[in-house]
Amino acid sequence: MANVNRHGLGRTVPAAVKREIRSRCGFGCVICGLAYYDYEHFAPDFRDATAHNPDGMTLLCMQCNQKRARGTLSAETVARANLNPKCKQEGFASEMFDFGPEPVEVILAGVTFYDCGVLLQICGVDLLSFSPPKEEGGPVLLSGFLADSSGATTLKIVDNEWFAGDESWDVEVVGPQITIRRGPGDIALQLKVSPPHSIYIDRIDMVVEGHFLRGDEKTLRISRDGKNWNTFEAVGMSHCRIGISLC
Predict the structure, then answer these.
(1) pTM
(2) Which of 15, 40, 118, 186 is the most buried (most CB within 10 A)?
(3) Which residues contact 92 (CB under 8 A, 6 or more apart)?
(4) Where are the domains of the chain?
(5) Rounded to an integer, what distance in angstroms lies between the CA atom of residue 129 and that of residue 117?
């Protein structure tokens, strides 16, 4: 794949252009709504483009992008989908976490959970929990939700399928990392996956049931009033029914 086209245009798309495209498309493939995507020129194709014009670009998942490359998905179909993206129709972009049948390690800021049924429970509400495989050899199943500092849900998970709402200011997926922002430089949630055994929640800033939770790669802080904080750092929990329960 050439790094520049015949007009000398490189493949690096400016960050501001990427965000405009993500927001317009609802943070997922305009054809099928999957949240692992590429930035695709379609009007005109990249080989004929002289600039990274967001009006002529869209989001396509890897499968739909391959259909474009193989000539089995037309630019006309992409253009129609770009005007009415799947994620905007459904209100979310979605994808699957790839877990196996073995227990999954979850690193939530400064706390590591391994083989725990409920990782985090607040006033009887399970924020993150695992259930056994539905069939022999199938994956363990993660469900739950994560929110932002206003209490609005940023990421919903149902049996390993995660959903990011199109009302978010920005949802960016780069490789295995998902970043949800409330505004420029304001990260509400950042996580990355290392399939099939681990998931890392590196940044979190949320309020649930009157509890404040903030975390980075090393420390998880929890408060009931936003002023007095309990700090968790280098904490490990394993083989427990409930990891952390608050109320």
Answers:
(1) 0.84
(2) 40
(3) 26, 28, 33, 156, 163, 164, 165, 166
(4) 15-90, 96-246
(5) 6
Give dist(CA 9, CA 18) in Å, integer.
16
Q: pLDDT tens across 53-70, in order?
A: 999 999 999 999 999 889
Torsion of CA 122, 127, 131, 134, to 10 degrees: 140
Query: Which residues, including other chains, have CB under 8 Å from residue 70's CB and lie 6 or more apart?
Result: none
Residue with tokens 């055994």: 197
The 3 state secondary structure assigned to the chain is CCCECCCCCECCCCHHHHHHHHHHHCCCCCCCCECCEEEEEECCEHHHCCCCCHHHEEEEEHHHHHHHHHCCCCHHHHHHHHHCCHHHHHCEEEEECCCCCCCCEEEECCEEEECCCEEEEECCEEEEEEECCCCCCCCCEEEEEEECCCCCEEEEEECCEEEEECCCCEEEEECCEEEEEEECCEEEEEEEEECCCEEEEEEEEEEECCEEEEECCCEEEEECCCCCEEEEECEEEECCCEEEEEC
Contact 237, 106 (CB under 8 A): no
Residue 40 contacts residue 57 (beta carbons within 8 Å): yes
Length of the chain in terms of residues written = 247
Could you report the per-residue pLDDT of 233-243, keeping only the tens digit for each? 999 999 999 99
Q: How far apart are CA 197 and CA 69, in angstroms?
A: 33
Count other Cβ atoms within 10 Å, centred on residue 230.
10
Do residues 204 and 214 lie in contact, with contact meaning Cβ atoms separated by under 8 Å?
Answer: yes
